[in-house]
Predict the structure.
Amino acid sequence: MNQERIPRMSEPLAAYLVCGGKWHDIDFARVELLKLLGETEQIRTRVGNDYSDVEAIAAADLLITYTCDVRPSDAEQEALASYLEGGGRWLALHGTNSILDFLADGRVSAPRSHHRLMQLLGSRFIAHPPIGRFSVENVAPDHPLVAGIEEFDVEDEIYLSELEPNLEVLLQTHYSGKAAGFVQEDWPDKTPRPVMYLHPVGRGQVLYLTLGHCRGPYDMRPMIPLYPRTERGAWEEPVYYELLRRGIRWAAGIRL
């Protein structure tokens, strides 16, 4: 893995994209992320559905994940820890921190499992209120990742999560109320909800961006044979693509 993070333009950068899981239009997200990665000629990308190719992850200059309910083994979690502790950068998107069980009564549970993964990511998804429109505020306007990003509105999921203490929050929103359909339904706490943050791990870092929900007609099977609408969430907003572009450059060690 390139430890200097800022390679010469003549040298390729190895990206590893994990794009897989459930209840989302993974095909759509995969294509959109590959198009963004392809905008930087020196980035050469390999793609996996999960974390099983630990050798490819260890060799990567940058790691990007868009998943939901992808559950790495203990060995795979330790490989991710080694990647970060050695100086790796990981752009984690949307449901990467989501482990979900659908219960017999129809509610959704977020089991307290995969502790190492959640510790590395800096958060554990617990619930979200119904998809709706909300405002996202920039709380670190001098940071290159969000410099010039004005407060914006987006229709997406507000992630209600358990958080590690050492996060550098860049974007946030606010929510208190109900998360209907989840085991942990009541969220009376008025504390801000991080939308984008940095989390240091050893010599490396995670950049987590919770936005990016997407779902198509076939993505809730077998529970719902034909989902009645197509949802694109933040993918419909130009500001989301700007944040993704900056996140990719950050992960690649390219000056913002």
About this structure: The longest strand covers residues 192-201.
